[in-house]
Write a structure and sequence with these properties.
There is one protein chain. The protein has 5 helices and 5 strands, in the order βββαβαβααα. It is of the alpha/beta class. The protein has one domain: 2-Layer Sandwich (Nucleotidyltransferase, domain 5). It is globular and about 45 Å long.
Length: about 160
């Protein structure tokens, strides 16, 4: 099974792809999608959609997991983040992928055991969980891998995967 995790953002969207082998997650790929800074909102959303579309076509994930919008900052930021989430969700739906959506706190608990973990603590634990030599960077990509790991744990707890 392959799980594509997404950390949505209008300036930088992180992605992380893991495979599950013998019940354990393994790193396949990670990176970011960065629309041009001078692009309009519509152009940025199109870049996010198009790049995710190509990524899904190339990597063939079985599941799609995305972080939910964090409501605590301000309404404008949540609205903008929601638009990038929307582009990613439409792309996943276009590919008929099952979608899991997770609050940032739940992702942190799944990877570090603490809902108050810093991004750097999440990054460190993602490195440990996946058994890789270097921490995945940038933080948007390590957050996306954490979302994929959280989705795997959720599926396992629900008895939907080994």
């Amino acid at each position: 099974m392959r799980i594509l995790g997404i950390d949505p953002g209008i300036r930088c969207t992180g992605y992380g792809l893991i495979s599950i082998d013998g019940g354990q997650p393994h790193l396949v790929d990670y990176g970011t999608i960065k629309p041009p800074p001078a692009a309009t909102m519509g152009e940025r959303l199109a870049v996010i959609y198009d790049d995710l579309d190509q990524l899904i076509d190339m990597t063939h994930p079985d599941e799609f997991a995305i972080e939910e919008a964090f409501h605590g900052v301000n309404a404008r930021s949540a609205l903008i983040l929601g638009q990038s989430r929307g582009a990613a969700l439409v792309c996943a739906a276009h590919h008929h992928l099952p979608i899991g959506q997770y609050a940032p706190r739940r992702v942190k608990i799944a990877t570090t055991g603490s809902g108050r973990a810093t991004k750097e603590q999440v990054q460190y634990m993602v490195q440990r969980i996946l058994g890789i030599d270097q921490p995945p960077t940038p933080l948007d990509a390590s957050d996306a891998l954490a979302v994929a790991i959280c989705h795997h744990q959720t599926l396992r707890l629900e008895g939907l995967t080994a």
